[in-house]
Amino acid sequence: MQSVILHIDMNSYFASVEQQANPLLQGKPIGVCAYISNNGCIIASSIEAKQRGVKTGCRVKDGKQLCPELILVQNDPDKYRTVTRQVFQILSEYTTDLETYSIDEAFLDLTPYLQATKHLHGGSDLERAREIGQRISWRIKQEIGAWLKCSIGVSRTMFLAKLLSDNGAKDSVTVLDIKKIPGFLADLNLTDIWGINWRLEKRFNAIGIYKPLDLYQASSDKILRALHKPGYYLWAGLHGLSTQVARKPEQPKSIGHSYCLPKRTTDKEYLARMLMKLCEKTGRRLREQNYDTQHFYIYWRYAHGGGDGLSRKLPVPIYDSWDLFQACFQPLLLKNLPDEVSMLAMGVSSFRIPNQQLNLFKTSQLAENKKRLLVKALDQVNSRYGEFTLVRGAMWGTQNNAPDRIGFRKTVSWDS
Questions:
Q1: Looking at 156-212, which runs of residues are DSSP E strands?
Q2: Which CATH number is 1-176 given?
Q3: In the CATH scheme, what architecture does the domain 177-248 have?
């Protein structure tokens, strides 16, 4: 049996979750914001807002100008993660080969499932996959929320499956076999293709390729000579050639946080409080995944251009947010700041599983064990009663600063 890949993309996800949670928002144009201020960014707009020209990524003041009745909603990452876990739990019932592409997208390799159930059903494998896609969409509405819609693409490769969900009708299942690719491409623009932005579009135009169908009909040698591997991979993707396989998320390469400061300053006491919160958020994520780290970086940007920072390898692995803060703050403390700081960023990498080997020096080992137990207890309290229920004194007064954010490519665990 040929491979059968399903790609699911939740429509207007954050906004739809907010509308599902609050019936008063249903049917109205809403914009979900990282920060509700004129220069804040709308990170998700509802279908109704998009119809009025309010696109994801526009500034709040621009969105209000396009749509004066736009309702602004502060983003709620915990809410979105909770719904995502429910969605992915449904998806995991159809295959173990599931790749989390982002918080609202996933690839499912349905080939093993279709092979195992072939004797129970008639029809082609792609049509059976269409039925699975329709069932998934129906279950999301029935089991999670009727306001949650999704676009699903089904084809032979991950590239084609995502191409279909991106360009097919919203809240529907689009199926395409490889031999029917040219007909589907006929009405698309180059930038409709997954992986082609306006810069790459210009490079394609320079060699006489203006439409996806031109790329499909071009020779692979021509594309490889002009655009090398990136161009060839796009050509191969349109021809149903792919070496990609759906897989579960791997270990992250880095964990970190950044924050544009509401107050531009050279006051290092203020910067220390902001940095401590970033370190606590990073430390929490580090410990949730059961890692120590031996490498950190810190960067700050100046209000009138430029910035500074460094990355450094630590002599011993650490896991505690306070140890991480002390390592990150030291270079900032020693630096003479020539301008006000407008943004702080920090992160960690070089992860490893904590070493359980006992230390030769008993007193040192006892202190380390007590420290781990204390940090674990703090994490348990914050997990149960809400983030930052218990915090270190260095974070006092930062409750409304550096709020939780969620990235669209963030790894999400769906295991129950």
A1: 173-175
A2: 3.30.70.270
A3: Orthogonal Bundle (1.10)
Q: How many angstroms from the chain centroid is the CA of residue 267?
A: 33
Which helix (H) or strand (E) segment is 108 a member of? Answer: strand 105-109
Identify the pLDDT of residue 185: 93
Q: Out of 48, 105, 127, 288, which one is annotated catalytic?
A: 105
Region of 406 on the Ramachandran plot (φ > 0 left; ψ -120 to 50 alpha; else beta): beta
Total-model pTM: 0.70
Rounded to 10 deg, the angle between the 198-206 and 220-238 helix axes is 140
Whether 243 contacts 228, CB under 8 Å = no
Question: Residue 284 is which amino acid?
Answer: R
Query: Catalytic annotation on 48?
Result: no
- Burial (Cβ within 10 Å: 0-12, 13-18, ≥19) of residue 337: middle
Q: Residue 415 pLDDT more than 70?
A: no
Contacts of 284 (CB under 8 A, 6+ apart): 321, 379, 382, 387
Domain at 254-395, CATH class: alpha beta
Report the DSSP pairing between strands 30-33 and 42-45.
Answer: antiparallel
